[in-house]
């Protein structure tokens, strides 16, 4: 069985962490992943702070296993959510899209294990010095907000730089990618895109179908000119967004207003004009299945690959 030091630290059976997908990662998905032996996450990007509180309370009813909350630091209510997790006694927090420095002391005092998503060695070292329990090194293969470096290069450089456990993320949807992440120095993997197709994932069926139909070239990164690049499926929405960015006559305000609410529309309504955030590994997601089947396929599959690697590649 695949095990690593992060399992003991977080109290989980398998070193698999679910991505904290905005508008998507709710109590249903988080509890299913946690009940399957991984670490489920609830996203703070939802219909407001109280809706996040409700999901946390629901999740406590649905599982007695550890779970966490992912905080999107660029969200206007990030400060409120930062205090909410303390109030609700959440034990694990992952952060994304910025530096968690302003909240680290409060969370450490509350005994919360903090696991920031970082996109560079510099930020990994900074959050380690601030007391982070682990880091998630997320490459630009991932869906949603992306950094510059990709998993193949980011992960080993972060693993060399820090002493705390490193969770590899970005482009991990099947057992070969999970095994590769362990070889690159990861103590665990974070998976988002594949969990979009989990039975327990509450995303609109159109979203799941688009993921299952996706191929290797189905995603695009838009938003670079606005300073927050986002990977999503190629749809009329994202292609129009890209064209607006390339047109010097379109202002950033016009582009921003075009994009506002697009993710929620895709997630909740399956609107063809919505933003379907997804990673490059969408092309590897073939079916809708229970979260448990995904966790077990990833971990048992990676174990088999790692066992067979020595006879396959070594004389
Ligand atoms: O945060 C993510 N992925 C996301 S957030 C999100 S919500 C959203 N909704 C609508 C439009 C745009 C976004 C969707 N997907 N992943 C974690 C992540 N964090 N990726 C990259 C980073 C990151 C980048 C820079 C983390 C830290 C960082 O530091 C900057 C600094 O302060 O040095």
Task: Describe the protein.
The protein has 315 residues and is an alpha/beta fold. The protein folds into 2 domains: 5-203 and 288-313, TIM Barrel, CATH 3.20.20; 219-277, no CATH class. It is 44% helix and 15% strand. It is built from 14 helices and 11 strands. The protein has helices at residues 5-10, 27-35, 49-62, 78-87, 101-109, 121-129, 151-161, 175-183, 193-196, 205-213, 236-246, 252-259, 262-269, 291-313; strands at 16-18, 40-43, 67-72, 92-96, 113-118, 135-138, 144-145, 166-169, 188-191, 219-222, 230-233. The strands form 2 sheets. An 8-stranded parallel sheet has the order 1-9-8-6-5-4-3-2. Strands 7-11-10 form a 3-stranded antiparallel sheet, covered by helices on one side. Strand 10 and strand 11 form a beta hairpin. Helix 2 (27-35) runs parallel beside helix 3, helix 8 packs across helix 14 and helix 11 runs antiparallel to helix 12 (252-259). The longest helix has 23 residues, at 291-313. The radius of gyration is 18 Å and the shape is globular. The model has no long low-confidence stretch (mean pLDDT 97). Ligand TUI is lined by residues 22, 45, 72, 96-99, 117-119, 123, 138, 144-147, 228, 230, 263, 277. Ligand TUI binds at residues 22, 45, 72, 96-99, 117-119, 123, 138, 144-147, 228, 230, 263, 277.
């Amino acid at each position: 069985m695949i095990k690593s030091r992060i399992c003991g630290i977080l109290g989980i059976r398998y070193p698999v962490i679910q991505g904290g997908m905005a508008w998507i990662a709710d109590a249903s998905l988080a509890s299913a992943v946690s009940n399957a032996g991984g670490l489920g996450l609830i996203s703070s990007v939802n219909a407001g702070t109280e809706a996040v509180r409700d999901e946390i309370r629901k999740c406590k009813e649905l599982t007695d296993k550890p779970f966490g909350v992912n905080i999107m630091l660029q969200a206007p209510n990030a400060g409120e959510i930062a205090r909410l997790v303390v109030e609700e006694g959440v034990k694990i927090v992952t952060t994304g899209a910025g530096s968690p420095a302003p909240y680290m002391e409060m969370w450490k005092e509350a005994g919360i294990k903090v696991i920031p998503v970082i996109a560079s060695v510099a930020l990994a070292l900074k959050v380690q010095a601030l007391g982070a329990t682990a880091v998630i090194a997320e490459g630009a293969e991932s869906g949603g907000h992306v950094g510059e470096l990709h998993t193949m290069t980011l992960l080993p450089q972060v693993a060399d730089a820090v002493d705390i456990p490193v969770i590899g993320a970005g482009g991990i949807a099947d057992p070969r990618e999970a095994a590769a992440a362990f070889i690159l120095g990861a103590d665990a993997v974070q998976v988002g895109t594949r969990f979009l197709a989990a039975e327990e994932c509450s995303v609109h069926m159109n979203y799941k179908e688009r993921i299952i139909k996706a191929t290797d070239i189905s995603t695009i990164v838009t938003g670079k000119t606005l300073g927050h690049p986002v990977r999503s499926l190629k749809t009329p929405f994202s292609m129009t967004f890209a064209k607006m960015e390339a047109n010097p006559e379109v202002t950033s305000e016009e582009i921003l207003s075009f994009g506002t609410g697009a993710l929620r529309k895709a997630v909740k309504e399956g609107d063809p004009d919505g933003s379907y955030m997804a990673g490059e590994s969408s092309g590897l997601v073939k079916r809708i299945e229970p979260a448990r089947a995904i966790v077990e396929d990833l971990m048992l599959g990676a174990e088999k690959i790692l066992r067979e690697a020595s006879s396959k590649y070594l004389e």
